[in-house]
């Protein structure tokens, strides 16, 4: 059967979405593929169609049994022969059926894929394998946000399945992760399909809060409003403690919410998941453990209560809303102490590079929080995609006008201080110098002798950081990576500002105030 008739007959769709046809064709031609597309864009079809066209088995490695169960069930309903094998489950009939090439799609956990004997693969190769897909392929990379050791071992199958095209699929788009997938799976000259990550129907917004009962009451009120409208909501919290707190607050006001975190038993978790999918619970309060495989089209709100660890997982989590293309809303609430959690997140990391990576990822999330320019542009930019317009018309910064103020003096101080410190530091050093710190680092570098030392005492260090992020957004400062350290430097535009400011030739530098800055000055 031809591709298009498979699409119509089995899936009931009349046309392919961007990249689907190309990827399917390349797979049929026998080429390795890397498919990087946003959640909900239709990656699964790329490995579901080829086995039906060429009548050979497709192997799909997927990290979660629940994900596989759902897929197998819906494929069976379409009349497609599909089955899954997990390591715990030991169904000899399914396995022996599989090796004869009975199934169009055979889903395996990574553990199971590595445990299957060579004889199994040899038999199945004779019957015909049309592709070996690795779903959620970012799990293979330590630079991804969901590294899984078992994924690393998949490359040994490459040696057995010599001429089978390998297909990596992920919604995580950073360059590092992409390269890692290609090398870890030993891909040969893969066809790379990178879709747009822009989800135009999602509104992005950020709010700063000071932890207090008052704030919690406001949050609960906000969530009540969501519940009053149609569709469902997810509230992501950074800790189990927060999940439990928000959950009980919602219960107190009579909101029927579900709860989901890693410390619950798997039965209770699955039950909540099911009720949420079936619209019996309008709200789910969860840690990020509530993740992959939430294929619910009408999630309208994703709230992050607390700054996420990194933007990769943040974008994937927010991507779970509005899959049906209808307008949906993503709010992030952060509090200042969120930014100080890097050391806490690093506690389990054994190597320096990895610790730096964790810190940098959090810095990027912090930058996102403190942004006064388009959030969408920044997020997409983080994934290497350029949005041509400066105003997306669908984020808080593009939709609200902020109070603006002449910040020439403050910007001058900060730029001059960064320059005086010599350009080999991150943001903390110059800010600490401005604030007049006498830490050992500062005394050792003799920065306490700088004329600027202590001149910025009247603002909190987060205020200065917020200003710095603005100066980055507006092109006065640049962040550069040196090895894996981020350093901050003056851009040519910043140099020009510094020079003309000295002679008072510069028009005033007017910048919008971030909510951080406003709160600080209250
Ligand atoms: P991803 O794996 O990229 O997150 P899915 O493969 O789960 O996305 O697809 C998301 C939704 O889009 C599914 O409901 C799927 O049936 C639908 N879909 C996929 N391809 C098409 C298509 N060509 N036409 C219409 N709907 C599609
Ligand atoms: Zn915008």
TrEMBL record:
Q: Ranges for the Helicase C-terminal domain?
A: 218-366
Which keywords does the record carry? ATP-binding, DNA-binding, Helicase, Hydrolase, Isomerase, Nucleotide-binding, Nucleus
Q: Which domain of life is it from?
A: Eukaryota
User: Which reaction does this enzyme catalyse, per its entry?
Assistant: ATP + H2O = ADP + phosphate + H(+); Couples ATP hydrolysis with the unwinding of duplex DNA by translocating in the 3'-5' direction
EC assignment: the record states 5.6.2.4
**Which residues does UniProt call coiled coil?**
none
One GO term under biological process is: double-strand break repair via homologous recombination
Assigned GO CC terms = chromosome; cytoplasm; nucleus
Q: What is its main location?
A: nucleus
Cofactor section: Zn(2+)
RNA-binding as a keyword of this entry, yes or no, is no
Q: GO: which molecular function terms?
A: 3'-5' DNA helicase activity; ATP binding; DNA binding; four-way junction helicase activity; hydrolase activity
Q: Where in the cell is it found?
A: Nucleus
Q: Where is the Helicase ATP-binding domain?
A: 24-191
Q: Which family does it belong to?
A: Belongs to the helicase family. RecQ subfamily.
Protein name, please?
Answer: ATP-dependent DNA helicase
Species classification: Eukaryota, Viridiplantae, Streptophyta, Embryophyta, Tracheophyta
